[in-house]
């Protein structure tokens, strides 16, 4: 019987090579769960082989298995082993349920002469759009909203226009990966204005590039309000921005507010400009570890420029700013730093060659922060006001309410005593923000390159262009996976369920079970805690926690978590007392190795090793423990 099945499958694979119809059409009848050659059937057998208890593989875990049919599985495994997957990337991504960023936005016609209103629009390239326009306005509202990948290009947009207005409102809201390229935007423009309101809010990986933006422009003011607020791990580049501009004021208000690890680069910004007027208000305030780099900003021949930094990085957690050759060789420039860098955890600021070689430069530092270094700066025209002194010793003062920043998500962390029946708590947003993807079978992942040393090969597989958003996504994830483990931590990035099972078994043994919160009901609302059960009787135990990483296929960062208690709790509606969810919570008992600036301590008002910290297991994350 087994020999007949093998021959039939071989005959089917042989015949399929003579047809050009799609893979999905030729294999519909093989895609059922009962097919013994499907990845899901293979995974079920592997679970039974590796897990000693008699429980079936959890439904939430098997639902993430590869949807590939037997034929697709065989074909793509062979392509991967021959290093030729890239030539079939589109069909591979579609059949395997991956998140691939190889599509290129379509182009709009150039030289558009009428007002345009782009609402609920997505994925376009605007090349030479609005060139030489006289008056009028274009509006982008709710553009690329709630999409996985928002990518748009504005090359030579509004170039040589006169009195033309551009407005970007609620642009790419809640997108997962957003990239926009403004190259030669508003170049040689006279009058008019550009306005960015609520631009890329709550985006997971924003990537913005402003190259030669408003170069040679004449009085074309730009305002950035609510720009990349609440984003995660973003990057913005302003290269040769307003170069040779004449009276091109730029205002950044609430830029990068409450963002997590946001980075901005201003290179040759305002170079050779005349009467530039830039203001940074509440720039990266309340952000987590922001990094901003100003290279040759406002220097190299700038004339009568004025820059103001008010409440810049105020209330942020740590952070780092570098000003290299800022205002160097400028003429009659004026810069004022007010409430600069008052982060509640000390950051680092470096001013190198600040105002060096300038004429008539005036710079004032009023209430600036600890850990600032000034090297080779101009010895004339620089005044230092109130210098923020170090605060009280660690542990002598609780973090005040005003310092519990939005990025730390106070409701995300709680104390173990809150897990009591009848307690009313605020449930954080536990919904999954990542794009929907599936695992790959280990037979395929084992053939794919996965290392920073093989980045060129990784980029080739997924057709990632140089300096693209996808390149950044790939690089960031590879670097995180290769990061040295923390003391006492064992970690591994897994792209197949087989690898996840093996890692959990290697840490906890064969008698294990994976758990996650059942659904997202109750998110962002007050809920009541119902019955609470401690895993392993609520005793101190070890677990393996797995969190998603952004990658084309489903990838988890799994790590051992020693000295924890895991709980399963009924979540009830406060009014009706009806059960709406089953939540899984993990309490870290030993926090002595955590950073003092960890969001949990900011929210709860303590420090490493002094308290336990609990949190819910979010949607599609999971924790493995030994079986009860």
TrEMBL record:
This is BURP domain-containing protein. PROSITE patterns: BURP. Keywords: Apoplast, Cell wall, Glycoprotein, Secreted, Signal. GO terms for cellular component: apoplast. Its main location: secreted. Residues 1-24 form the signal peptide. It comes from Deinandra increscens subsp. villosa. SMART domains: BURP. It comes from the Eukaryota. It is found in: Secreted, Cell wall; Secreted, Extracellular space, Apoplast. The lineage of its organism: Eukaryota, Viridiplantae, Streptophyta, Embryophyta, Tracheophyta. Residues 413-627 form the BURP domain.
């Amino acid at each position: 019987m087994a020999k007949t099945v093998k021959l039939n499958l071989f005959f089917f694979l042989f015949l399929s090579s003579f047809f050009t119809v799609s893979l999905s059409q030729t294999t519909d009848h093989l895609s059922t769960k009962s097919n013994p050659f499907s990845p899901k059937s293979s995974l079920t057998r592997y679970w039974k082989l590796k897990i000693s208890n008699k429980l079936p593989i959890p439904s939430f875990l098997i639902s993430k298995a590869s949807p590939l049919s037997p034929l697709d599985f065989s074909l793509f495994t062979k392509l991967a082993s021959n290093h030729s997957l890239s030539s079939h990337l589109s069909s591979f991504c579609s059949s395997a349920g991956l998140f691939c960023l190889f599509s290129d936005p379509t182009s709009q016609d150039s030289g558009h002469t009428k007002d345009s209103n782009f609402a609920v629009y997505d994925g376009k390239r605007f090349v030479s759009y609005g060139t030489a326009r006289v008056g009028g306005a274009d509006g982008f509202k709710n553009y690329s909203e709630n999409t996985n990948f928002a990518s748009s290009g504005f090359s030579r947009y509004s170039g040589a226009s006169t009195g033309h207005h551009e407005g970007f409102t609620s642009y790419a809201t809640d997108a997962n990966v957003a990239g926009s390229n403004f190259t030669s935007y508003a170049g040689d423009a006279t009058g008019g204005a550009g306005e960015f309101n609520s631009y890329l809010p709550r985006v997971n990986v924003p990537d913005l590039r402003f190259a030669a933006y408003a170069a040679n422009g004449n009085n074309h003011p730009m305002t950035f309000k609510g720009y990349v607020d609440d984003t995660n791990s973003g990057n913005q580049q302003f290269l040769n921005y307003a170069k040779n501009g004449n009276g091109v004021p730029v205002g950044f208000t609430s830029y990068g507010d409450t963002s997590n690890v946001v980075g901005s680069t201003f290179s040759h910004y305002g170079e050779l400009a005349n009467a530039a007027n830039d203001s940074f208000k509440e720039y990266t305030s309340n952000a987590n570890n922001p990094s901003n780099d100003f290279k040759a900003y406002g220097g190299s021949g700038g004339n009568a420029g004025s820059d103001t930094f008010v409440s810049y990085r105020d209330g942020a957690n740590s952070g780092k700013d570098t000003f290299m050759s800022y205002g160097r060789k400028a003429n009659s420039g004026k810069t004022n730093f007010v409430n600069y860098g008052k982060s509640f955890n000390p950051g680092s600021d470096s001013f190198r060659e600040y105002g060096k070689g300038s004429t008539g430069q005036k710079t004032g530092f009023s209430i600036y922060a600890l850990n600032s270094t000034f090297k080779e700066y101009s010895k004339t025209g620089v005044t230092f006001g109130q210098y923020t002194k170090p605060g009280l010793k660690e542990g002598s003062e609780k973090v005040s309410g005003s310092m519990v920043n939005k990025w730390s998500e106070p409701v995300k962390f709680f104390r173990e005593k809150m897990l009591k029946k009848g307690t009313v708590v605020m449930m954080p947003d536990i919904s999954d923000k990542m794009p929907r993807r599936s695992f790959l079978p280990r037979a395929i992942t084992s053939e794919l390159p996965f290392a920073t040393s093989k980045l060129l090969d990784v980029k080739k597989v997924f057709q990632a262009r140089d300096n693209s958003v996808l390149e950044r996504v790939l690089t960031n994830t590879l670097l995180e996976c290769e990061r040295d483990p923390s003391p006492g931590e064992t970690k591994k990035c897994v792209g197949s369920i087989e690898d996840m099972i093996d890692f959990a078994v290697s840490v906890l043994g064969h008698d294990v079970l994976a758990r996650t919160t059942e659904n997202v009901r109750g998110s962002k609302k007050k809920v009541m805690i119902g019955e609470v059960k401690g895993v392993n009787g609520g005793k101190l135990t070890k677990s393996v926690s797995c969190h998603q990483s952004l990658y084309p296929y489903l990838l988890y960062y799994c790590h051992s978590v020693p000295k924890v208690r895991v709980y399963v709790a009924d979540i009830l509606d406060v009014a009706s007392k009806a059960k709406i969810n089953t939540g899984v919570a993990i309490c870290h008992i030993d926090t002595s190795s955590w950073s003092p600036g960890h969001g949990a301590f900011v929210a709860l008002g303590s420090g490493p090793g002094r308290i336990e910290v609990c949190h819910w297991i979010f949607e599609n994350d999971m924790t493995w423990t030994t079986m009860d």
